[in-house]
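Our platform keeps sequence and structure together, in a single record for each protein. Such a record has a labelled line for the sequence and another for the backbone structure tokens. The tokens are whole numbers drawn from a learned vocabulary of local backbone shapes. The remainder of this section carries one protein's record, kept here as part of the documentation:
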Amino acid sequence: MRVAVVGSGVSGLGATWLLNEHSEHEVHLYEADSRPGGHANTVPFAMPGKEAVEVDSGFIVFNPSTYPNFLRFLRKYTSVEILPTEMTFSVSRDHGAFEWSGKNPGTVFAQRKRLLDPRMWRMVYDVTRFNACATKVLSEDCEDLSIGEYLEREGYSDGFRDDYLIPMTAAIWSTPPDVCALDFPAKTLVRFMENHHLLQLTARPSWLTIKGGSKQYVNTILDKLPKSQLHLSTPVVSIHSEPAADGSSGFKIVLKTAAGATETYDHVILACHSDQALRMLSEPTEEEKRILGGFRWSQNEVVVHADEDLMPRDKSTWSCWNYLTFTTQDSRGGKKANVNEIAMTYWMNDLQHIPLDAHGPVFVTINAPRAPAPSKFLSRIAYAHPVLDAQAVRSQADMPFIQGTRGISYAGAWMRYGFHEDGFTAGLQAAAALIPGAGKGLPFEIVLAEREVERWRDRVQGAFEVLEAWGVRAAVGALLSFFLAVLRMLLGVRTD
């Protein structure tokens, strides 16, 4: 069977790897760009007077618990070295006026005046409550409940929403914070956070990164693909499907490139974004239009730089992920968090073991609020990320209705949570469906990273329900606010 894979991001690479190395099929990989890899994009970084180093600008980290298929693939190749790393998080608002980091209790209150700020203490309480209680929503029949509606229903504080959950969600999915707050499905977010151990009250998962950057695994896959079957700088403009002429149940798929060339395949895997796939279909069915058209995408600009002004002001709070935001005036003249933009800086020295002395500070910022200083700017890259709103979740559930029909399959991280493991798994699944007896011939079992909710949560959830329902939290909070107000007055401390 001749199979075309369109798109060389993680899904296309996963499908190509499985078909090329574990099947008898002839697989051709098409990529519109001159560079394969998609978000697996390792770029050179060199500042004057410093040594050069390779830096990832898209996909950076993964963990053993929730990247099972990707990790099993990597471990088959000794040439790809895996290093331990960490994943810490900070928030910086208004150029350092408000900052905290979750690295340890000291950095949560890095600004010591926050010890007298009731909003900060309420945030800490709500983080603990959310981590313990949020999984209850998974048993509810509330597929359309947004995270914003959930927070309001459960009485979470503005501080928790603006200073923790919205930044965390926006950072994870690289989507505008207003989308996260108002539209993001609560069950999708909670299920993801539970699967990725982000609701742990104690131990967090270990995190990993690839030495030399993610291009190492990209090269490992493509080095085994015959050069004549790799088509870079070859945009595909149309896919036409028609029944095979031999009267079999198969299809003939005619693929046309932007240069006007046509090739015929027995099957095509569209391992690209949903909107791109829909545009390629020459005669999409109504169902394909509805399902593929149900996904939205956010465009994000990434800059690789060395400008410390795009990091928190207090270096003790510097973390792997650093969320930058600003305060604006609402319609009544009060202050509110700016939820129309996202700025996130990754501290690559910490994430990818890049020595500061040898290479200087290395940062990757998504949607920077301003351009880095020209002398510290290295490169600019555009990425698109799926917006996993309620409509997207419905379209995900309906994907089986169009998957594999008419000789066309789909693969993409957008079919699940939008992450590298999701994309790699989608590519493997699309390819495995084309391999006879694939269950026996696969190099490993393809699994989905799902966790059962721990039973201990029932007891902790019950305790928080008592605190909330009986008004204990409200009463203690009022007393604490009064006590802290007196201390602020006596000490002359302002926290606004």
